[in-house]
């Protein structure tokens, strides 16, 4: 298995499916897309790690980002007060010529995420930027949770709240630290993970917030999560399949990292956790 070689490879448009593991993609992709598929090794097991290790120089790229870690805020990853904790002194705006914060402009409050059509709509509305740039990246949030069929996403809602609070604090808003109370689910996840200190049970407790309790009781956490994960992947692939004909050039579909469902005691994805489900990603060159 070769390295992903994300920026060193030849492409005009790269469609990044967040948290897309190779094996699930391999099972269903040909129902939606035609191309030559390889398994490649990502440089990161999470988005911050993947971005920090890939974008090290100056890159002429129009980047449509559904993921809040890749943003135009200008705040280094190691100074963010929301999301994953890391030591990476990296900002997208220092390395990428133009970043579109679709995680903000295309946000769907009911779903708790950016649906696939938010990314494609942002692309269509900014074709002038695409024409200016040497290459273009469209970073879709799916199949990453929250699972769209559930419509009760919690993960990105937590990040969105953190972004607003940090922006308010930097703007001198006295209400920043005493704003709206977090939801019960937000508090539950924070408290459980704090008490259990990142254990497997704590990871599963976080994932349970995205699942149907009845489905978990009937089928178990892994099967329930994998079913919704595959459905999320199908939703984004359906949107991509309708969209790619608009792209004139070499198109690649890949992922920043994968997703774990209990393998080696790991659930979801975490920084610097190089296990196969998290670093084995698809590399599909479309016909």
From TrEMBL:
It comes from the Archaea. Residues 160-184 are annotated as: Disordered. InterPro entries: Alkaline_phosphatase_core_sf (IPR017850). This is Sulfatase.
């Amino acid at each position: 298995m070769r390295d992903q070689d994300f920026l060193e490879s030849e492409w005009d448009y790269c469609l990044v499916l967040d948290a897309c593991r190779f094996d699930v993609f391999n099972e269903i992709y040909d129902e939606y897309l035609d191309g030559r598929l390889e398994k490649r090794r990502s440089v990161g097991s999470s988005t911050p790690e993947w971005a920090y290790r890939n974008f090290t120089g100056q890159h002429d790229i129009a980047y449509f980002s559904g993921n809040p870690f890749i943003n135009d805020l200008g705040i280094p990853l190691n100074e963010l007060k929301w999301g994953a904790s890391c030591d990476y002194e990296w900002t997208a705006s220092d390395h990428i010529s133009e970043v579109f914060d679709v995680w903000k402009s295309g946000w769907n409050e009911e779903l708790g995420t950016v649906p696939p059509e938010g990314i494609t709509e942002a692309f269509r509305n900014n074709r002038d930027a695409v024409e200016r740039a040497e290459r273009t990246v469209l970073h879709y949030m799916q199949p990453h949770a929250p699972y769209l069929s559930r419509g009760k996403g919690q993960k990105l809602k937590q990040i969105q709240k953190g972004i607003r609070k940090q922006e308010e604090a930097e703007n001198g808003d006295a209400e920043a630290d005493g704003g709206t109370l977090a939801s019960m689910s937000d508090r539950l996840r924070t408290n459980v993970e704090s008490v259990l200190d990142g254990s497997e049970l704590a990871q599963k407790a976080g994932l349970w917030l995205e699942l149907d309790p009845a489905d978990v009781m009937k089928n178990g956490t892994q099967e329930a999560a994998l079913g919704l994960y595959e459905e999320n992947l199908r939703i984004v692939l359906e949107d991509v399949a309708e969209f790619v004909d608009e792209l004139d050039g070499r198109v690649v579909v890949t992922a920043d990292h994968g997703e774990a469902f209990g393998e080696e005691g790991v659930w979801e994805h975490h920084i610097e956790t190089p296990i196969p489900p998290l670093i084995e990603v698809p590399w599909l060159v479309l016909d």
